[in-house]
Amino acid sequence: MTSLARPQTPFAVVDRDRLDRNVARLRTHLARLGVPLRLHVKTSKSIDVAARVFRDAPGPITVSTLAEAEHFAGAGYTDILYAVGLAPDKLDRVVALRRRGVDLTVLIDSPVQAEAVAAASRAAGIRIPALIEIDCDGHRGGLAVTDPGLIGIGRTLRDGGAELRGVLDHAGESYFSATADEQRRDADHERRTVVRAAEALRAAGLPCPVVSVGSTPTAHAATVLHGAALDGVTEVRAGNFVFFDLVMAGIGVCTVEDLALSVVVTVIGHRPDKGWVLTDGGWMATSRDRGTAAQRVDQGYGLVTDLNGRVIPDLLMTGASQEHGTLSLRPGSTAKLPDLPIGTRLRILPNHACATAAQHAQYTVVAGTAGDDGAPRIAGIWPRHNGW
């Protein structure tokens, strides 16, 4: 299998050159700000992708499942943050990872969780470290920075046999900020909120060595604003940036030319009466994410390109059943539906890279020049690790 014209469709493709450019861009930006990256591996779930970020040796990572933590630990990653609110019944797996020499940190935002972490620490004779999640924008979990329970949770961890390692927030609403100015304000608000929480803990005599922020939009937008960049922050978490997607392009964090993930599909039929081209790539291959629907430009279920990655003007994936994708012209377009015979291979650029990647067990990697048949040359296969 020398090119994208060979493997049976549908399958996920990663453009290695684009991925490397995306990584270099954020790495350079954060180096200027003097704050390290803690890569979030939930997007790629791939050891090979992480190795493109950490060229010399495994570095600090964030995971969204304990299956990710276990998988990456097996590859030598020992500094791991499990950044989803902790279900207490998972603490046995946390303890097992720490006994393997993994410095695994958990995330909590309630007294119940704090007491569970403390109890598990005492029972195992291991001080399990935890970050307290702070809500900076009402997007999901976390404590308000003014919540009086913050200090109590910190004391429960410290005095109960666990370790209070610090605080974390996530500017999830930044994914809906459509201008650079809005994203810079999101980044500044994210920083100010979590630093304020850290200062409250320290004022109460509690330790707070880690002050963690992160989202792909705010990681790129963080800059000097109101006299501060990332002052008081010890790390930045981001993961989507390795691939980017149409949601990120839609809010200006990247361009369509930066998207490193796509899905190759094959034309299997036509409905000229409806203006449809049918493919073998339904939502089981691309996901049903419609993240651009609320944006200024709705990209349906994804943009369509030819096999070499050139966008076909005004052609969208507009429908998805389990194993069928429907392609049609963008509403309002005056273009003519392109002639795409049965057997034609196309690529779909996804709305949400995390969701699309999750449909696949591996990535077919392309890089450099085309093969003998003119299609992009396959440079390798990178496995990914699904599950919880």
From TrEMBL:
<dbReference type="Pfam" id="PF01168">
    <property type="entry name" value="Ala_racemase_N"/>
</dbReference>
<protein>
    <submittedName>
        <fullName>Alanine racemase</fullName>
        <ecNumber>5.1.1.1</ecNumber>
    </submittedName>
</protein>
<dbReference type="InterPro" id="IPR042208">
    <property type="entry name" value="D-ser_dehydrat-like_sf"/>
</dbReference>
<feature type="domain" description="D-serine dehydratase-like">
    <location>
        <begin position="260"/>
        <end position="367"/>
    </location>
</feature>
<dbReference type="GO" id="GO:0008721">
    <property type="term" value="F:D-serine ammonia-lyase activity"/>
</dbReference>
<dbReference type="GO" id="GO:0036088">
    <property type="term" value="P:D-serine catabolic process"/>
</dbReference>
<comment type="similarity">
    <text>Belongs to the DSD1 family.</text>
</comment>
<dbReference type="GO" id="GO:0008784">
    <property type="term" value="F:alanine racemase activity"/>
</dbReference>
<dbReference type="InterPro" id="IPR001608">
    <property type="entry name" value="Ala_racemase_N"/>
</dbReference>
<keyword id="KW-0456">Lyase</keyword>
<dbReference type="InterPro" id="IPR051466">
    <property type="entry name" value="D-amino_acid_metab_enzyme"/>
</dbReference>
<dbReference type="InterPro" id="IPR026956">
    <property type="entry name" value="D-ser_dehydrat-like_dom"/>
</dbReference>
<dbReference type="InterPro" id="IPR029066">
    <property type="entry name" value="PLP-binding_barrel"/>
</dbReference>
<dbReference type="Pfam" id="PF14031">
    <property type="entry name" value="D-ser_dehydrat"/>
</dbReference>
<keyword id="KW-0413">Isomerase</keyword>
